[in-house]
Amino acid sequence: MIKARDxxxxxxxxxxxxxxxxxxxxxSKTFKTGDWRVNVPVYIADKCKQCLLCAPYxxxxxxxxxxxxxxxxxxxxxxxxxxCAKVCPFKAIEMKKEEEK
Length: 101
Ligand code: SF4
Ligand code: SF4
Prior knowledge:
The chain contains two helices and four strands. By secondary structure, it is mainly beta. It has two domains: 1-31, no CATH class; 32-100, Alpha-Beta Plaits (2-Layer Sandwich), CATH 3.30.70. The strands form two sheets. Strands 1-4 form a two-stranded antiparallel sheet. The protein is elongated and about 55 Å long. The N and C termini lie far apart (41 Å). 15% of the residues are buried. The protein binds iron/sulfur cluster (SF4) (2 copies). One iron/sulfur cluster (SF4) binds next to α2.
């Protein structure tokens, strides 16, 4: 049976699940949804105080935290919504147009 992530415009109808049911969890982990991005967050490490407020606010889990510190964005999954830039109290994230990055 075809997996949800393998469904694309070239799929034959016979490959779809009965009733179009999805048997996997609703996760973007296996999709590189960062391609949808128009705006992009830029991380300014010098201004970052590692308060970690941005990480739980990101709806896409695209701010990795390692050893208690945030690292640069996961651009495979960041959709450029700008929430992280809005919540950062230290202006350590700036939003730019993708082509200005
Ligand atoms: S909210 Fe701002 S200061 Fe806090 S960890 Fe994120 S980028 Fe750094
Ligand atoms: S721009 Fe949105 S999706 Fe990207 S890291 Fe910030 S909060 Fe997450």
